Q: What sequence folds into this?
């Protein structure tokens, strides 16, 4: 991350939550690229996989990746590539070149979503208050993702490790609301912490 | 809780989905060549069965894909969910 870089977002003024039970922070400078291709187009898939150096997710909720990028399953023909913000233009350009004659789309949605990281032993207790996901079926381990809603906000939840660490991406206009909702929902676990 | 099996994501809560009315209604291929009555039928007339019904649904808060649902309107049982483009399933004998 470039230290000169300044970010402003609806979450800039929010105070981090840093208790033992629950932690909440904003994740800045995350490049997000929406990639769509035809479900049965093995050729495009192969070009993308060769470029990324690993396979695209094949089943619902799967996340693949390496040190540089992560790819989340969004649908049978849709993926979200996560990368450092500085590297996203390069990835778009290089994919556009290798896919010149193919049927696909790659769209920079980095500024469309804000990402906040919820972690700590009580994070699932916070989420289940208003998220209909069955956490015994979905997001059971690291490198899984699921789209659903939390209270009134549609979200994409990316469990980034086997520990309870959830990166929650939300449309930026909902970010202020969702942060406040998560903070409020965390109160009972942070106020009376032993 | 009412669970719906999205053909792409698997079992999810009903509140993530929206129903969009009857499925398997084909738009006339040449709208300018059909009569007003035929066009009106296509636009406005729908089955309203007591029993098995075929519906289009979307998984709004999940994969955002459209799919079809075979649902019993009496019991609210969802018999089957299937992808767009797949043929309409046979109605089982009761
Ligand atoms: Zn789905």
A:
């Amino acid at each position: 991350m470039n230290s000169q870089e300044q970010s402003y977002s609806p979450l800039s003024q929010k105070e981090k939550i840093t208790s033992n039970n629950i932690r909440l922070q904003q994740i800045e400078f995350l490049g997000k690229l929406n990639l769509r291709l035809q479900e049965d187009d093995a050729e495009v898939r192969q070009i993308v996989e060769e470029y990324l150096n690993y396979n695209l997710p094949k089943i619902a909720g799967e996340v693949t990746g390496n040190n540089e990028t992560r790819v989340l399953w969004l649908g049978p023909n849709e993926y979200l590539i996560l990368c450092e913000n500085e590297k996203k233009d390069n990835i778009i350009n290089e994919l556009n070149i290798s896919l010149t004659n193919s049927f696909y789309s790659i769209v920079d949605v980095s500024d469309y979503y804000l990402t906040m990281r919820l972690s700590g032993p009580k994070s699932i207790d916070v989420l289940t208050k208003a998220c209909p996901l069955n956490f015994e079926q979905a997001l059971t381990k690291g490198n899984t993702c699921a789209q659903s809603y939390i209270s009134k906000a549609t979200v994409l939840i990316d469990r980034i490790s086997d520990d309870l660490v959830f990166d929650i991406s939300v449309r930026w206009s909902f970010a202020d609301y969702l942060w406040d909702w998560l903070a409020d929902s965390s109160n009972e676990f942070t106020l009376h912490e032993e | 809780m009412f669970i719906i099996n999205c053909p792409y994501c698997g079992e999810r809560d009903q509140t993530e989905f929206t129903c969009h009315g009857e499925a398997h209604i084909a738009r006339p291929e040449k709208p300018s060549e059909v009569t007003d009555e035929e066009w009106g039928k296509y636009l406005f007339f729908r089955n309203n069965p007591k029993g098995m019904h075929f519906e289009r649904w979307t998984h709004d808060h999940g994969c955002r894909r459209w799919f079809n649902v075979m649902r019993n309107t009496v019991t609210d049982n969802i018999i089957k969910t299937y992808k767009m483009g797949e043929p309409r399933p046979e109605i089982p004998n009761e």
Q: What stands out?
A: The pocket of zinc ion is lined by residues B 6, 8-9, 59, 62-63, 65 (CB under 6 Å). Strands of chain B lie at 3-6, 10-13, 18-22, 52-58, 66-72, 78-83. Chain B has a mean pLDDT of 94.
